[in-house]
Amino acid sequence: MEAGDISKGKPGFGANKGVSVLDFVLRIVAFVCTLGSAIAMGTTNETLPFFTQFIRFRARFNDLPTFTFFVVANSVASAYFILSLPLSIFHIVKSGAQNSRIVMVILDTVVLALVTAGASASAAIVYLAHKGNTRTNWFSICQQFNSFCERISGSLIGSFGAVVVLIILILLSAVALSRRP
Amino acid sequence: MEAGDISKGKPGFGANKGVSVLDFVLRIVAFVCTLGSAIAMGTTNETLPFFTQFIRFRARFNDLPTFTFFVVANSVASAYFILSLPLSIFHIVKSGAQNSRIVMVILDTVVLALVTAGASASAAIVYLAHKGNTRTNWFSICQQFNSFCERISGSLIGSFGAVVVLIILILLSAVALSRRP
After folding, report:
1. How does pLDDT run across B1-30, given as a tens digit for each residue?
2. Model ipTM?
3. Is residue A53 one of the residues assigned to a domain?
4. Res B7: pLDDT
5. Which of B119, B124, B173 lies nearest to residue A125, judging by beta carbons?
6. Are the beta carbons of B106 and A138 separated by less than 8 Å?
7. Cβ within 8 Å, pair B121-A124
8. Which residues have a Cβ under 8 Å from the Cβ of A40 and sit 6 or more positions away?
9. Quick check: A164 and A8 in contact, CB under 8 A?
């Protein structure tokens, strides 16, 4: 919301250029968020210090398919943010561009759906790992795999941050589209 | 994608009005999708025909908090779609409106995030109910609760349909914003 206020504060001074610069900065923030989430989740791996003759107690992120999806979704999103930076620079230079902004809104929307899907599906599984569910006999695994659970919980933060940034990015694009230079 | 083609097919004939009418129709579709999903999930309830002296085997949607979230998210979304219809009609009448379209884009984006979150979190749990996970000792419950599983799987369809419709709605708003009547 602050973002919108800043750009509205100086309507005389190339307002669309200000919106575009903010767009560029937010894309870098979103890139850092999603890349951080993907790396944090992708390197999660805990081996317990005790083991029996047959089993070694080990938890990795790809024991659960949902976390694999989370890593893929966040990697794709961070790649998209890097690839969209040139287009964002183009919008700073040529702030009257309309068609390329429409393309960007639709790509942003699809990436928003992707990142939200990954983050919330993982959040559902993380909740289950913490609390378990007695009705379905799915027990909490966080007593045993403590650092694993902390890591997977923490890696959600970046992803949810990226969701917020993407909503602001779509708002900024809508504001820029509604104006003529 | 067809949606965009239709409105672009007749650019001379009040293109923004065509976009607004399509917007109105798609909102009704999205309302039906989300309401259907909420009702289908919210009435899911299976009692198995056998029981012991102590336990009755019964599965309801609110045994799993994620499904409660799914019902709430879809109910809120369907209420939003009904409440946004007057604004959509206003856009048909006054197709040059810009500020109200920006408000609509941002609300659509937030609802998109909400519906996607509900649908994908539930999909993660439905997947677990079907397949189970051997590494965490979470076993499939679909052998016992067969009709419960079919019902929760089916109710996801409407929600994912609403996600697609919302992406198209945001695209339509972006197209309408980029034009002047």
Report:
1. 444 444 444 444 467 888 899 999 999 999
2. 0.85
3. no
4. 42
5. B124
6. no
7. yes
8. A151, A154, A155, A158
9. no
